[in-house]
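Record type: ASSEMBLY
Status: queued
Input:
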Amino acid sequence: METVVDASTSEEANGSAVEKKPTVVFVLGGPGSGKGTQCAYIVEHFGFSHFSAGDLLRAEMNSGSENGLMIRSMINEGKIVPSQVTVNLLQQAMEESGNDKFLIDGFPRNEENRAAFEADTGIEPAFVLFFDCPKEEMERRILNRNQGREDDNIETARKRFKVFLESSLPVVEYYESIGKLQKIDAARAIEEVFESVKTVFASINEKED
Ligand SMILES: Nc1ncnc2c1ncn2[C@@H]1O[C@H](COP(=O)(O)OP(=O)(O)O)[C@@H](O)[C@H]1O
Ligand SMILES: Nc1ccn([C@H]2C[C@H](O)[C@@H](COP(=O)(O)OP(=O)(O)O)O2)c(=O)n1
Ligand SMILES: [Mg+2]
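Status: finished
Output:
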């Protein structure tokens, strides 16, 4: 009789160890939709490590690395940095964390980001959270953010909204088309949004049990 081997078990039939792939959740939404805010709550409640692609790029930009000037000029123009730079930073952060559950925030922001991550890591997301928020509300939040970000000005924000519509929404639509999208109404109070987020993560945990 044939035995069914679960791909997630730690040994293959010949006894060699098989590494279990990490669990990745992509967190998408327009600039200012509340991705970073909600990720901090998810980390507290569900034991994920949180990596914001934008935060990693800003750290790289300030580190004096050879890519620094290029990253700064792209971010200040609201453009998306070439995928290889961002995917390398994400991979390094994941490897150094020692965790196997990751929230990847603000990534993939375009089709090139999505394909590069999949090609380099072989990982597909378990699901994708999408924070849906009207542009006017995102604009208000960005202009009140007060984190000293050079790109949080009205001119760059408008460029970022345009890039979001043209390049990032198609990725959101792709994940919707393959049934992996968890869309959340982000135009509510932080606690209310998190109630919806909790429901999504709780139902995923149930499926795994
Ligand atoms: N639901 C919310 N209602 C009002 N303000 C919010 C909400 N979520 C986040 N904010 C605020 O809006 C700004 C942008 O949130 P942030 O989490 O940085 O968004 P993102 O990472 O998507 O750009 C921050 O100043 C944050 O405190
Ligand atoms: N995958 C990514 C993520 C961010 N970036 C760059 C371009 C974005 O406008 C900036 C800021 O991204 P970040 O996610 O920090 O911004 P928000 O939190 O959505 O306001 O970083 C990128 O080039 N590629
Ligand atoms: Mg953010």
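Annotation: The pocket of deoxycytidine diphosphate (ligand 2) is lined by residues 31-32, 35-36, 52-54, 57, 75, 78, 80-81, 86, 106-107, 109, 113, 151, 160 (CB under 6 Å).
Annotation: Residues 1-10 have pLDDT under 50 and may be disordered.
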